[in-house]
User: What shape does this take?
Amino acid sequence: MITRPRIGVLALQGDFAKHAEALAAAGASVNEVRVPSQLEALDGLIIPGGESTTLLKLMEGTTFIDDIRRFHGRGGAIYGTCAGLILLAKQVRNPMQRSLELLDAEVLRNGYGRQIESFEKQAPIKCLGNPPFRMIFIRAPTIETLGRGVEILATCNNRPVMVRSGRLLATTFHPELTPDIRIHKFFAVMCMECAAVDTGEVCGVR
Ligand code: GLN
Assistant: This one.
């Protein structure tokens, strides 16, 4: 298995610099991705939080949508936070908008309300052990429905807030805004597992 995954952070808009810092601290080799061709040399990609409509606008006229789908199809792992999750979801409401349609989920933009309804809360993430994670929600989406193959890794206030489906990871909150790098480490391991499957090194990893 590779020991240092190459992970890109989509650097069009939003909170990409903090993700890059957390990934570097988690031991990954980090690249900011500004043009689609930069996806080629990567094992994983983070789509950061920000504003999904702005991200979509900046992708217009580029091949990003198709190339990110292709990147996933050829074995790349993707982690979407907040607006990044909105871009990954198969269906988006409030209002309906275009997306990558990779994650079998329906999300509601600004599902908790407006900026004033942003909040933070500590909640456990079973696969990361103790202590609980400080989850920061900023105009966060809510996950309304999930497909059968999607695993819920954490809930907060009885709602799914961290999910995984094969090579896709998504959180409705912003781990990069805390010094806790456990989720970035978890994603780095996912990327290494996916890269190993890709090279035929291990079998049976989702
Ligand atoms: N509300 C934003 C959107 O709909 C997401 C907010 C965030 O990424 N923190 O795109």
